[in-house]
């Protein structure tokens, strides 16, 4: 490892996107550290949906724990810490990542810090037991069930109309706020069989299993729901991207190309921090593409003709181009796989 850096790659964020990026960079021979403060949207999942090969009885916490163990088994370093600052170092090539545990010097940075859902005021059911944030993940759960959508803007109105694809019982709860959706959206909304409820929620009832049963309203009515979706926007965790000068979109997402490259050379962004569908398989795909792109950028071989003319042919003692620690981890992983074959 060079004396100018501690790691080849630093991944900030321990969700599906960040851990997949770390998996790829590690398995492709790059010394990688994951800086993970814990929590995140995936950790809140009671059940895992829409991830092929992962059954629904797996919680988000279990899903992430398995992923962390996989990445560490390949030789990556995992640190439970908060990253508070990012800047390019004086050499112009590497970065300094400030964390609770000190400064990490790294050649490449992957930002996978995601966003936080803006949560409405209580009374509300627990997340995953009637309070849901991903229509594409959870709409299937509410086929032929009574569903609410909370909010007063265009996104709330559209989600309410979309839910009619799954059930004929959809209420749009503005909770006392004046509607801010457009005239066109209003015309569409009035043409769909959706009840718009303007009264504020005063109480919430749950069953013995913890699931939502009903909301109570200021006019004294009680309306039953199996669950629903609050639509109050998102707060993107883009402070590190802003620190280092990455271009941001108007909504707070980080601008990236198809492989996660930001406007700052050497900095990548993946997952919920970038535009697109906020889905685990999508995030994992983005992490994989970023990991491969970083590998192709940092790998020393093949040495180009220009480099051969400048530095000479590749010497036998220069290969393999993988650190001693990763070579040891790879050998240990291979030996364990031989000792514990999958068909035992």
UniProtKB/TrEMBL annotation:
Molecular functions per Gene Ontology: oxidoreductase activity
Domain FAD/NAD(P)-binding: 7-287
Domain of life the protein comes from: Archaea
Keyword tags: Flavoprotein, Oxidoreductase
Gene3D superfamilies: FAD/NAD(P)-binding domain (3.50.50.60)
Protein name, UniProt field: NAD(P)/FAD-dependent oxidoreductase
């Amino acid at each position: 490892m060079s004396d100018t850096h501690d790691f080849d790659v630093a991944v900030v964020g321990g969700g599906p996107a960040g851990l997949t990026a770390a998996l790829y960079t590690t398995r492709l021979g790059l010394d990688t550290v994951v800086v993970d403060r814990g929590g995140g949207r995936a950790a809140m999942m009671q059940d895992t949906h829409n991830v092929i090969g992962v059954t629904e009885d797996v919680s988000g916490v279990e899903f992430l724990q398995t992923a962390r163990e996989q990445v560490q088994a390949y030789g990556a370093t995992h640190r439970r810490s908060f990253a508070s600052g990012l800047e390019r170092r004086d050499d112009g090539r590497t970065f300094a990542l400030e964390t609770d545990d000190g400064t990490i010097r790294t050649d490449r940075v992957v930002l996978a810090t995601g966003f936080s859902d803006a949560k409405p005021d209580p009374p509300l059911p627990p997340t995953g037991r009637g309070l849901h944030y991903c229509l594409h993940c959870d709409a299937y759960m509410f086929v032929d069930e009574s569903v609410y959508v909370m909010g007063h803007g265009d996104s709330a109105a559209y989600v309410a109309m979309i839910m009619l694809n799954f059930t004929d019982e959809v209420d749009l709860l503005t909770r006392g706020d004046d509607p801010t959706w457009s005239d066109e959206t209003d015309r569409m909304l009035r043409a769909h069989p959706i009840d718009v409820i303007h009264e504020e929620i005063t109480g919430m009832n749950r069953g013995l299993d913890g699931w939502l049963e009903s909301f109570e309203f200021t006019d004294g009515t009680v309306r039953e729901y199996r669950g629903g979706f609050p639509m109050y926007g998102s707060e993107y965790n883009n402070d590190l991207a802003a620190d280092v000068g990455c271009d941001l979109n108007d909504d707070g997402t980080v601008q990236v190309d198809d492989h996660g490259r930001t406007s700052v050379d050497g900095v990548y962004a993946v997952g919920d921090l970038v535009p697109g569908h906020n889905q685990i398989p999508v995030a994992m795909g983005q992490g994989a593409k970023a990991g491969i792109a970083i590998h192709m950028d940092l790998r020393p071989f093949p040495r180009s003709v220009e480099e051969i003319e400048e530095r000479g042919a590749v010497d036998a003692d220069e290969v393999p181009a993988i650190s001693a620690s990763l070579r040891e981890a790879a050998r240990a992983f291979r030996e364990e796989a031989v000792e514990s074959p999958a068909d035992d």
